[in-house]
Amino acid sequence: MSTATVSASVSATASASATTTATAAPAPLKLPGWVDLERPPIAETREQLLALLPPVAEKDEAFFTFHFEPGKAAKMNQGNPEIATHQISREQCWRGLQGVEIQTAEQKDRCGGHDYMVPIHPDGDPTKARFCIDQFEFPNRPCELPVVWSGATQAHQVCKKLGKRLCRQDEWMRACDGDPGGGEPRRYAYGDDLDLEICNTNKHAKDLNDPPCDARTVKSAWETCGTHTEPSGSFPQCRSRFGVYDQHGNVAEAMTRYDHEEGERVSQLKGSAFFYVDVHRRHDAPREKETYIDICRHDPRWHVQSMQKAWHVNYHLGFRCCFDIPPEKKKASK
How far is the C-alpha of 256 from the C-alpha of 153, rounded, in Å? Predict the structure, then answer.
């Protein structure tokens, strides 16, 4: 595969969040104990991939061993390493997040002790928070590549075994457009005007895939469609006011919604991926074929399936988990 040419905006973002002046040595990084800057960007072994997850119950180990496997189509992993390109390193990503309090101790407590989750509430009233949401795309680790090739049914099972559940569309939307202080909703997580440079949305597919991406089958997609993601949180401004990252770009996300006509819960795919520049449309622009809007409240109908058998997977589809705040935590909130 030829060296990918990525838009200047990606390089600029990486540079803005990671570089120091030529005359000064980089400041020491303050990192969580689990971070290993020397690990390959993409997990090369199942052990490396599973190490990104919280500890799992012994009875569930076989489930994760079966469903997670690097380098194999239709297994949960971070994409085909043979054809994927990633422009921002783990270290650059962490430099961009230095000085940011990602999650407070109070937020962690309200979210059941889960790392990197935040409670979401309406009307500027924290006492009304009923759920928490992962701040990063699964595996919900800052500065790690998101997991793809996961159907909504599998994703829900993963979340459930980690003490959470797959998010609902209305929850995802509120986390995207809402304001903890009760301000007006935004069209996008970062503001009201579309900006393809703020998030990982500005990579042209034609510059990245040689030969061109053929997504007609799982096999052809694995062999030709690169998962050109960046570590979650690499674009610090791609953040909602609640502190949720990458709800635009990087990977689209699987979630659920209730279908009143069918009388059951179904899969819902939302968001955009790294190649959104090729299919983007402003919220007020005329509808055109092969384009779509990516506002927080967009309600698409892509690959709708019953949650009993929502098996659709692809190279740019990930997910994040939500968590129901226990009653005693609701009462204790201020």
Answer: 10
* Single-letter amino acid, residue 153: T
* Phi and psi based region of residue 113 (left: phi greater than 0; alpha: psi -120 to 50; beta: remaining): left
Query: 283, 117 in Cβ contact below 8 A?
Result: no
Distance between CA 135 and CA 232 in Å, rounded?
9
Structural contact between residues 14 and 217, judged by C-beta atoms closer than 8 angstroms: no
pLDDT tens across the length of the chain (334 residues): 433 333 434 444 444 444 444 557 778 899 999 999 999 999 999 999 999 999 999 999 999 999 999 999 889 999 999 999 999 999 999 999 999 999 999 999 999 999 999 999 999 999 999 999 999 999 999 999 999 999 999 999 999 999 999 999 999 999 999 999 999 999 999 999 999 999 999 999 989 988 899 999 999 999 999 999 999 999 999 999 999 999 999 999 999 999 998 899 999 999 999 999 999 999 999 988 889 999 999 999 888 999 999 999 999 999 999 999 998 765 555 4
Instruction: Read off φ and ψ for residue 117, nearest 5 degrees.
Output: -130, 150
Domains and CATH numbers, the chain: 8-21+36-332 (3.90.1580)
Distance of alpha carbon 334 from alpha carbon 331, whole angstroms: 8
* C-beta of residue 238 within 8 angstroms of C-beta of residue 199: yes
